Amino acid sequence: MGAIYGLIALGLTLIFGIMRIINFAHGALLMLSMMVGYWIWKFSGVNPYLMIIVVAPIMFCFGYFVQRVFIKPVLDAQKDVREPIAVLLLTAALAIVFENLALMVFGADYVMAKTTVTDATIALGGITVSAARFYALILALVIAYAFYLFLQHTELGRRLRACGQDRNTALLMGIDGPKTFAIAFGIGTALLTVAAIVLLPFYYVHPTVGNVFMTKAFIVVVLGGLGSVPGALLGGIIIGLIESIGAQYMTATLTTVVVYLVFLLILFVKPSGLFGSRLEW
Amino acid sequence: MDIVQKKKIGLIVIILAIALSIPLFVTKPYYIHVITMCLLWAYLASSWNLFCGFAGQLSLGHGIFTAVGAYVTIMLFNDFNISPWIGMFAGGAAAVLLSTLIGYPTFKLRGAYYALATVAIGSGVMVLIENTMTLGPFHVGGAEGLIVRLMGNAPAYLQFMSKVPYYYLALAMLVIVVVFSYWLKNSRLGFYLSALKEDEDAAAALGINVRNAKLVAAAYSAFFTAIGGVFYAMLIRYLEPMAIAGPMMSNEMVFLAVVGGSGTVFGPVVGGITLHAISEVIQFYFSDMAQGLHLFIYGLIVVFVIMFKPQGIIDILQKYYNRFLGISDRGEDESSVS
Q1: Contact B258/A20, CB-based, under 8 Å?
Q2: Cys bridge to A67: A185, A254, B113, B327, which one at CB 3.0-4.6 A?
Q3: CATH-assigned architecture of domain B3-325
Q4: Helix (H) or strand (E) holding B147
Q5: Rounded distance, CA B80 to CA B114, Å?
Q6: Residue A12 is part of which domain span?
Q7: Residues of chain B found within 8 Å of residue A77, distances taken between Cβ atoms
């Protein structure tokens, strides 16, 4: 579970690190990915994990489109504003649009991709773990590492990081800013898709499923440091651990409150997070 | 008194006259209820705007203030038989206390971090309310919600059988908050707030105590929001944690204020009334056609306003208003976007 939080947070941190936008539509996009994945699985019946190959490009295009059509005009209009609040609100409004679109198209039912993986277990040196969760962990780690390598070692990755560090200088160096932003948004959404697909075999999908994960993704991102890739993953695992260990000792709701408290403490004590840059916030 | 001022006073008198006479023409309780809710949302959006609009802070957790106001008042009423007329000030005071407690640590956070902190606090408080059945001698009700004890027609206890008194009450509250907004915007504190909205460091360098200015403005905002929560509770007579403290409550205030025009005196009023009216209408006509369609349309409207009219719809009205007064578009005016 923690690794999935990390994966979701990875997309959020990418979008924030590069565009300085907190994407409130992140949860809704996760839900959309899960919905699309579920219905493709339902009609084709392929192995859910194989669907990443299909759904991720679809969601990449969708993310690219969302950034181009909705976010870019507002971002351009607010170029001189230090804290683009309008963009935050825009993403929050988009979240409402997506959620209700899903409600209209897919209905309010709770659905899950029940396959052979759902109830299978794997024995790992005496500990039995759910197979679906185990695969989720492995996939999340692999994807996160691949993404990290991509950011560090490819031309496009360098371009993305350059835009995150200093937008204006990056533009002066001949980087197509808006295009890079759109790609970043697309990649962020595609990363979400991976999280969505690995969730499918053991987590129910419904139009508001995004809310469950989004607040946590925010917490994870701040914990790890906004814009930091290893931070997002580690933060996700920490929050996942707090939740599962906390659940042993207290009620689930109290655990939620504890998670919020941890989050607020980090904000007050070290807002830059575990791996955050030293930028002033 | 010149002609412009005469026209202004005339306009205010006309609007007030129309507002006061609405219950004479509209008699169906359902419509009165809808119009009252429009006024209430305009009021809540204005209360949010008092701090967040004027100071440029994005609080997405104002639902906790409606919740605290409403819960404190209703608990005092249900368990100690204290009239909501008195209880609402206790609720308001509790909200002010809470806002100050939250404000001390959070106001050093900037921009997105502040917004995230308010989201976390808002969700945390909602979870706490949902899981508290009793608090000392008080019955809280947890996720079941809290039912307001019914007294029949009891004006002394802020309960009326007819919807009309609620309408006038909402109107009075709206007028008060608008007058207060106007005063605040043109007060010393208002100037402080607009200075720190532009640049916090520069404002601090000029000798403004940024934190105190924020704390005081946030306290005003929390108080008014809490009173709005009390009114909501008395109108609906049922408190559900999700409805009164949930993200929908918090976000709706922000949407209405921003669509109307945040940081202006009349923007949130215009936004609250028009957008809520539109949402009621589309809910009425479209909710049967497909689940979620009305919220889908509502979301799209918000998206388009933010995209194409980021100053809010007040900006359009401003132009007509100026033309009516016979002054140029860029003329001096207190409700202009500054």
Answers
A1: no
A2: A185
A3: Orthogonal Bundle (1.10)
A4: strand B146-147
A5: 37
A6: 2-208
A7: 310
